[in-house]
């Protein structure tokens, strides 16, 4: 049987593709990033398309031989790279039209808590997409997982790991929120059963453990799983600070960053993430593992601890780079004559000196602002490294005495290069 998985290199999509392949399916993934597809590993077929922009005739061609279509594509919030309506509704409508009259089964991975009156557009748009599929007449199963826990971490699960990794302090975030979880392997197994026809057609079911716990209790459980000691003190994060952080994260979303503190994620957590396993088990499903069982099956390795710590440090490192390069360029322009004098006093002609200072200041400003955008982060970092090396080489030729300056301006460029290299090594988000 042939299965096509939309969003095949995401947290859920990649696990689903591997589980379907292990069950004997011929699996093809659909996604827009060739680099992310390559990182999924060899042995899979890929169709590189932006799911939100594919029209019905092209879907008809892409899905013409599919026995099963699994929709694992989704986005948390509108932003620089995401359009909720296009991904959650328009794409589903076009796929349903393309499959009209076929026996293809569609397995839709939705989310627990969806509804027309839900508190966020994420849940409302997901519900509208589910409704389109339910009214299409296609053979379908809709699975609605709660918070998914797996070896990899994106968004909310990355935030959970990072919150657990904060040294000494246990932040009490949203103490009233109740959360249930589901193992990523259980979700992938459920998709395989649905794809094989073992789940009743038309089933709409939550995938969840039976137990629930508060969000601080969840963080503490993950902290112990990571092998970290209990915090020395517990601090409740003020609501106003959490709202301010969400507003900043929403702003960063327009620059292409999928920050886990965006308002949709915080609102979803504050509402609680809960489901009812009854419908799933009634449709022929299995008992989903508890959080303790899920974590017991996942090794907490050094990679896990590195990720949690670096997830906290990554935005700080980018901010430090921006705060180094932008003021550097601004000071060069504000104190233009003094900067030019550094060169002219060492024998450089006035014209070339002015040109070098002006160009250098503008380049510093551009690079400092570039790293604040997700799209321009890698080019900006590479530019910083190249320009820093250029500064050192040209400075050594034109002003070698600055190497012995008591304040060490040339020497201080070296850790800046190291910082840019470190951030460059952390830029992958899939």
TrEMBL record:
Domain of life, source organism: Bacteria
A Pfam family of this chain: DoxX_3
InterPro entries reported in the protein's UniProt record: ComplexI_NDUFA9_subunit (IPR051207), DoxX-like (IPR025695), NAD(P)-bd_dom (IPR016040), NAD(P)-bd_dom_sf (IPR036291)
All copies of domain NAD(P)-binding, residue ranges: 7-147
Transmembrane segments: 311-334, 354-372, 379-398, 410-427
UniProt keyword list: Membrane, Transmembrane, Transmembrane helix
Protein name: SDR family oxidoreductase
The species this protein was found in: Thalassovita aquimarina
Native organism taxonomy: Bacteria, Pseudomonadati, Pseudomonadota, Alphaproteobacteria, Rhodobacterales
């Amino acid at each position: 049987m042939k299965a096509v998985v939309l969003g095949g290199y995401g947290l859920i999509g990649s696990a689903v593709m591997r589980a379907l392949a292990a069950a004997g399916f011929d699996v093809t993934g659909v996604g827009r990033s060739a680099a992310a597809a390559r990182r999924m590993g060899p042995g899979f077929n890929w169709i590189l398309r932006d799911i939100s922009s594919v029209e019905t005739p092209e879907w008809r061609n892409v899905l013409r031989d599919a026995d099963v279509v699994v929709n694992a594509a989704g986005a948390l919030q509108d932003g620089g790279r995401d359009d909720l309506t296009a991904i959650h509704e328009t794409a589903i409508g076009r796929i349903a039209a393309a499959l009209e009259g076929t026996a293809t089964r569609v397995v839709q991975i939705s989310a627990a808590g969806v509804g027309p009156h839900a508190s966020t557009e994420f849940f409302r748009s997901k519900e509208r997409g589910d409704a389109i599929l339910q009214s299409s007449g296609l053979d379908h199963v809709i699975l609605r997982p709660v918070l998914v826990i797996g070896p990899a971490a994106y968004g909310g699960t990355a935030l959970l790991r990072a919150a657990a990794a904060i040294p000494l302090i246990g932040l009490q975030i949203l103490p009233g929120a109740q959360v249930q979880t589901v193992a990523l392997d259980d979700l992938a197994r459920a998709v395989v059963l649905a794809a094989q026809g073992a789940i009743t057609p038309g089933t709409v079911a939550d995938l969840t453990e039976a137990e629930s716990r508060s969000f601080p209790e969840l963080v503490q459980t993950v902290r112990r799983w990571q092998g970290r000691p209990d915090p020395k003190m517990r601090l409740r994060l003020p609501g106003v600070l959490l709202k301010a952080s969400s507003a900043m994260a929403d702003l960063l979303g327009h620059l292409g960053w999928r920050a886990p503190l965006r308002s949709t994620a915080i609102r979803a957590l504050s509402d609680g993430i809960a489901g009812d396993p009854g419908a799933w088990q009634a449709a022929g499903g299995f008992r989903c593992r508890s959080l303790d069982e899920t974590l017991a099956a996942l090794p907490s390795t050094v990679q896990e601890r590195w990720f949690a710590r670096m997830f906290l440090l990554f935005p700080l490192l980018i901010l430090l780079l921006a705060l180094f390069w932008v003021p550097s360029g601004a000071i060069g322009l504000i104190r233009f004559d003094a900067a030019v004098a550094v060169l002219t006093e060492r024998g450089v002609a006035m014209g070339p000196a002015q040109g070098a200072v002006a160009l250098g200041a503008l380049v510093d400003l551009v690079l400092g602002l570039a790293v604040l955008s997700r799209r321009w982060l890698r080019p900006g970092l590479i530019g910083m490294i190249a320009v820093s090396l250029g500064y050192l080489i040209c400075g050594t030729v034109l002003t070698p005495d600055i190497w012995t300056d008591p304040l060490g301006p040339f020497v201080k460029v070296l850790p800046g290069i190291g910082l840019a290299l470190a951030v460059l090594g952390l830029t992958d988000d899939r």
